[in-house]
């Protein structure tokens, strides 16, 4: 059986500049060189070499629901909630209660919010 490592997630975005700004301001992601092509796709870096690729598709129809999301973990969960509030980013628990976190059965706290293209993102405190 082969072993796989997570490499990147790619999202179609209507305005690549707006999306880069969102991810840099809220999550502090650093922009890195797009080494794959000379396209307008922009790459951002998570920790440990993981990447977010933002692919400009200004005419694409983007449909999502909360069950389709990517999740990030932080040991600074409360500070992150403060950052969401500072930037006036609306967030909710899994049940769509505004400005509330959710505590899973295993004790992990989580919140959900959307980026400018309405992709869902979960941030939780599962750092074990």
Automatic annotation (TrEMBL):
Pfam families xref list: Glyoxalase (PF00903)
Top-level taxon of the source organism: Bacteria
Start and end residues of each VOC domain: 5-126
Classification via SUPFAM superfamilies: Glyoxalase/Bleomycin resistance protein/Dihydroxybiphenyl dioxygenase (SSF54593)
Gene3D superfamilies registered for this protein in UniProt: 2,3-Dihydroxybiphenyl 1,2-Dioxygenase, domain 1
UniProt name for this protein: VOC domain-containing protein
């Amino acid at each position: 059986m082969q072993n796989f490592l997570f490499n990147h997630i790619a999202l179609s975005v209507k305005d690549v500049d707006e999306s880069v700004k969102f991810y840099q301001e809220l999550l502090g992601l650093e922009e890195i060189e797009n080494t794959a092509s000379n396209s307008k796709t922009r790459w951002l870096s998570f920790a440990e070499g993981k990447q977010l690729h933002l692919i400009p598709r200004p005419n694409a129809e983007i449909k999502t629901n909360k069950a389709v999301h990517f999740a990030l973990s932080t040991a600074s969960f409360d500070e992150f909630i403060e950052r969401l509030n500072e930037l006036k980013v609306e967030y909710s628990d899994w049940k769509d209660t505004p400005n509330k976190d959710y505590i899973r059965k295993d004790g992990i706290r989580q919140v959900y919010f959307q980026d400018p293209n309405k992709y869902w993102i979960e941030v939780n405190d599962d750092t074990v």
